[in-house]
Amino acid sequence: MASFIRLDKAVSQVTDLSRSDVKRAAKAERISVNGEVITDPAAKVQASDALYLDGEPLHEPGPRYIMLNKPLGYVSATKDGEHPTVLDLIDEPNKAKLHIAGRLDIDTTGLVLLTDDGQWSHKVTSPNHHCEKTYYALLAEKIEEDAVAKFAKGIWLNNEKKRTKPAKLEILYANEVRITIGEGRYHQVKRMFAALGNRVIELHRERIGNIFLDEELQEGEYRLLTSEEIASVQ
Fold first, then answer.
1. Model confidence pLDDT, tens digit, residues 78-135
2. Given 91, 105, 107, 214, which residue is catalytic?
3. Which is nearest to 2 in space by CA: 49, 36, 65, 46?
4. CA contacts within 13 A on the Cβ side of 36
5. This prediction's pTM
6. Span 138-158, mean pLDDT?
């Protein structure tokens, strides 16, 4: 037996239009169903019906996987009353359904992944899947050589009951490092360096699992992931 829903609800589900917006569009004769203009927003439609807005076909978006180069000043949230969010940088239909797989602090830049595939997102963020993340960090002070061994052993963080998992630290220059971690504790990278008496001035995420930030993406730009990148998350 076919399942019917209201036209305004069906159109709002596959666009960024609210149901009030859809009602106005219908009254303006901008919506058609199976080639027939429908002006009644309460008209019943079913999944097999072909919906059009301004002559363009509307489709339920399939799973989407997006790579964003996050700039400073944006929060990793879908809504925020004080700051712009990473969703403000995304120009995609029905973007409110996207969620963030691996958040970054407002003062951290670099790779952010967004998707509406809940299972895939869980694989990215769950510590059980060991999805490593790599960061470039600029430090306030010179980093000592013995920090490499300390990170490999695990760092005691303030107010934590156990060490961090072993992390890989690569010293690039006196106060520039690259760090790879396999877990995601609160402000973990900053707290690890703070535990050694140092301070992170700049933090930039370069990699999540086998997905590397595209060097061609400028800050604030994004692109869809390739099929290979999507499949790399197991």
1. 888 889 999 999 988 778 888 899 889 999 999 999 998 989 999 998 877 778 999 9
2. 105
3. 46
4. 7
5. 0.78
6. 95
What's at 164, amino acid-wise?
A: T
**For residue 204, which of 74, 71, 66, 90 has the smallest C-alpha distance?**
71
Six-digit token pair at 187?
Answer: 């402000």
Establish whether 105 is a catalytic residue. Answer: yes
